[in-house]
Design a protein that fits this description.
The chain has 689 residues and is α/β, with parallel strands linked by helices. It folds into four domains: 213 residues, Rossmann fold (3-Layer(aba) Sandwich); 74 residues, no CATH class; 245 residues, Rossmann fold (3-Layer(aba) Sandwich); 107 residues, no CATH class. Helix content is 32%, strand content 21%. The protein has 25 helices and 24 strands. The strands form four sheets. It has an eight-stranded mixed sheet, sandwiched between helices. The radius of gyration is 26 Å and the shape is globular. Keywords: ATP-binding, Cell membrane, Membrane, Nucleotide-binding, Transport. It holds the Pfam family oligo_HPY. GO terms for molecular function: ATP binding; ATP hydrolysis activity.
């Protein structure tokens, strides 16, 4: 018997907005059901409706049965008895889900006492046991800490501890790893698997990360415009998709084991629930659209064993053996002429030589005194040649953003040198900095925060042109809009009238206004759906080839880095751990930290994900105010644990510097015992028949 049965679930908000339209699925005991789709597809609203957590103005109809008991229409006091005991939810943002004024231990103990007749002491002991189960170090001590004293990964693990406190039969996980570093994500997913083994619970995993679903799910529901468009076993969905939308999603994913070349974007944006198109909601974006697609919305119909597809051309897709690359046109990006010249013969556009940036650690409300130092960036060196992309990667807190700030400010660093386009930042005056800023521009992570909502897009793009003395800017603005794939008439609109991908294109257009030679990209696609992300990545690739740009690219998504970068520098706690070409670093990583990063990246390939070996790092990143002696990575290093006592002593006493590896031209690692290891198994095919 199923734990959860959802039948024809519909959620309507005021104004007749149908956010969820006839969702049906079941979850068996011990099963993981993955729900995927772009933002606005109704994934989270569906889960909140199941939990009974929607606002009172939402009209919910259909049926949600937990162990045969109907949840819709249940009284609030009865729902409270079920929530947290039989069914639990792990939220996307644990910081806002925890109460900030109570300790973590008290909040978990409260969840225990609400549903179990136990005393305070026993509940507190159970809270410590749960924190230990999910891998929180020193659980007895950390139970007394407040939510803000936990790192993001620790908060998410504590949220999982609270969710499993009463051994629920069903766990609903709403984007549980979205905001986490890939190493912490791997730890959290491992904790979820452990929690499922301990409780035997069924799991509903809601995420936009198709790699996570490939490794965890047994069955998958693909949602679009508030309803399922394809569902079935995970292997069928990934290797034999029969709905063009599913095929487009899978084809648009950058892969660390994939071939180079343009990604396959899905043109356009998901429709608004308030104004759905006639017929199939996906038809305006579908390359396989025919006139019949506009007549009526296709129902979700059976398609083989355990499969359901909502597409009138699904049998044709199967018969012809079509793949995502067959259905969606692959963009053609012209070759980059600049890189035909050997790297050593091209001019250097950016050079960092042993750059240092420290911050004082102050104490005191009125009279502040220095009590320490934050070693944000502690001596890093790299360079970027003309027409090249260098990616700076690493966990949050490793110093990537500080490095960008030091470069963009064009101010003298505390130590070392920053040379931009041949000019030392320490020797620049105010006029020199203003002149150089035209050649050095930045694209920010959050385009909505970077664009002034009170200004039309045309004025936003024209602003740097006017600041540098240009008068007739309108022709240039129109040219820039067309360059990034937007129309000239968009100049009159405001940022809030555009989608996330379009806003990022506007940010890129503004950055290109002064025809820079070096573009700094700060997580430019992390806030975008994978289908929209593919188009922006292709645009950046095309602009680099067409305009001969150089990029400094900061990212935490290593699959995107593999696709866009020529060289990679891996940072850890203010230092460079490994640097080299993309091929060397990804195919033959030599530093244990790089190996752990790459092994933690989920692949959108169920067979590979089930057989891959993870290198899980213990604990969290040490504080940059108190880095370990010697090798900064040794406190989390898997290799350190198997070294001899003499070898460990060297790691403790002597800090390694980046040294070129044997038989390598451009590949170095800061490890006393560096050893090249293959951690990614290349896939022969993304889709099989």
């Amino acid at each position: 018997m199923s734990i959860l049965e959802v039948r024809d679930l519909t959620v309507t908000f005021p104004g007749g907005i149908e956010a969820v339209r006839g969702v049906s699925y079941e979850v068996e005991r011990g099963e993981v059901l993955g729900i995927v789709g772009e933002s606005g597809s109704g994934k989270s609203v569906t889960s909140l409706a199941v939990m009974g957590l929607l606002p009172t103005n939402a009209v919910v109809s259909g049926s949600v049965k937990l162990h045969g008991q109907e949840l819709l229409g249940m009284k609030e006091d009865e729902q409270i008895k079920v929530r947290g005991k039989t069914i639990s939810m792990i939220f996307q943002d644990p910081l806002s889900a925890f109460t900030p004024v109570y300790t973590i231990g008290d909040q978990i103990a409260e969840a225990v006492r609400v549903h179990q007749n136990v005393g305070k002491d026993k509940a507190a002991k159970r809270a410590v046991e749960l924190l230990d189960l999910v891998g929180i170090p020193n659980p007895g001590l950390r139970a007394k800490a407040f939510p803000h004293e936990f790192s993001g990964g620790m908060r998410q693990r504590a949220m999982i501890a609270m969710a499993i406190a009463n051994d629920p039969d069903l766990l609903i996980c709403d984007e549980p790893t979205t905001a986490l570093d890939v190493t912490i994500q791997a730890q959290v997913l491992e904790v979820l698997k452990t929690a499922q083994q301990e409780t035997g619970a069924g799991i509903v995993m809601i995420t936009h990360d198709l790699g996570v679903i490939a490794g965890m799910a047994d069955r998958v529901v693909v949602m679009y415009a508030g309803r399922p468009v394809e569902q079935g076993p995970v292997d069928d969905i990934y290797y034999r998709p029969r709905m063009p939308y599913t095929m487009g999603l899978l084809a648009s994913i950058p892969r660390i084991d994939g071939e180079e070349g343009p990604l396959v974007p899905i043109d356009g944006n998901p429709p608004s629930p308030a104004s759905l198109p006639p017929g199939c909601p996906f038809a305006p974006r579908c390359p396989m659209k025919v006139d019949m697609c506009d007549d009526e919305e296709p129902p979700l119909t059976p398609f083989g064993s355990g499969r359901h597809v909502a597409c009138i051309r699904s049998h044709e897709i199967e018969h012809k053996g079509l793949t995502g690359a067959d259905v969606f046109p692959v963009p053609v990006i012209p070759p980059n002429e600049v890189v035909r010249v050997p790297r050593a013969e091209r001019p250097t556009v950016l050079e960092l030589d042993d750059m240092i940036k420290h911050y004082p650690l102050l104490k005191g409300a009125i009279v502040k005194r220095r009590v320490g130092t934050v070693y944000a960036v502690d001596g890093i060196s790299f360079d970027i040649a003309q027409g090249e992309t260098l990616a700076l990667v690493g966990e949050s807190g490793c110093g990537k953003t500080t490095t960008l700030q030091q470069i963009m400010q064009l101010q003298p660093p505390e130590g070392g040198r920053v040379v931009v386009l041949g000019k030392d930042s320490a020797k620049l005056d105010k006029a020199g900095r203003k002149s150089l800023r035209g050649d050095l521009q930045i694209v920010f992570q959050d385009p909505m925060a970077a664009l002034d909502p009170r200004m039309p897009v045309g004025d936003i793009i024209a602003e740097p042109l006017r600041a540098h003395g240009e008068k007739d800017v309108r022709p240039k603005v129109e040219e820039l809009l067309e360059l990034v794939g937007l129309a000239a008439e968009h100049a009159e609109r405001y940022p809030q009238q555009f989608s996330g991908g379009q806003r990022q294109r506007i940010g890129i257009a503004r950055a290109l206004a002064l025809e820079p030679k070096l573009l700094v990209l700060d997580e430019p696609v992390s806030a975008l759906d994978v289908s929209i992300q593919a188009g922006v990545i292709n645009l950046l690739d095309e602009l680099k080839s067409r305009l001969g740009l150089s990029y400094l690219f900061v990212a935490h998504d290593l699959a995107v880095v593999r696709h866009l970068a020529d060289r990679v520098a891996v940072m850890y706690l203010g230092r460079i751990a490994e640097i080299g070409t993309v091929e060397d670093v990804y195919d033959r990583p030599a530093h244990p930290y790089t190996q752990a990063l790459l092994s933690a990246i989920p692949l959108p390939d169920p067979e590979l994900e089930r057989t891959r070996k993870r290198i899980l790092l213990e604990g969290d990143l040490p504080s940059p105010a108190d880095p370990p002696s010697g090798c900064r990575f040794r406190t989390r290093c898997p290799k350190f644990a198997v070294l001899s006592e003499a070898e460990r002593r060297r790691c403790v006493d002597e800090e390694p510097s980046v040294a070129r590896l044997a038989n390598a031209v451009d590949h170095g690692a800061a490890c006393h015992y560096a050893e090249e290891v293959e951690v990614i198994t290349a896939s022969d095919n993304q889709e099989e028949e």
